[in-house]
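Render this sequence as a predicted structure.
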Amino acid sequence: MREFYYNLFADYYQFYLQDDDMSKGDLSDAWTSDATDALLAVAPHVIGVGTARNMTVPVSVMLCESRPNISYNDWDYVTTASLVIETGRIVVAGCTDYFPEAARIEVLPGTYEVIVCYGNLEDLSEDGLDGKDSYHLFVYPGHPIPPAILKNRNQEGEDGG
């Protein structure tokens, strides 16, 4: 497994994982009220992850060779979606980051499945500026899948994988 750690400015309560071809990643119509409630917006070649704070948040990206065995009980909330990467580079960025300077992860071109695990979503200061929320993305070769919620908030999870 390859691990990457970032502190991303989650302006507008979101950050992205997308193909390096910026012309193919457009979430402008994807942030519907359902997507906002699900903390997950998906469009071709891009996934938008919703956050609990409109501040800098810790994000980890784990590149796995196959679907990882994740205990959903370790997380407040878990979602999944697929991501097509044609360029061989995944961009990890806040939505207002300067795209040419955003972090990139080299991968083989193809379709990936992404499991997003959200931690400590309720552990925020009263003003919502500080918190211990964190976002962990497990990325592995896969197939096109529809976006889905694997564990709702305030629900005991099942082991995935």
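Summary. The mean pLDDT is 94. The chain is about 5% helix and 45% strand.
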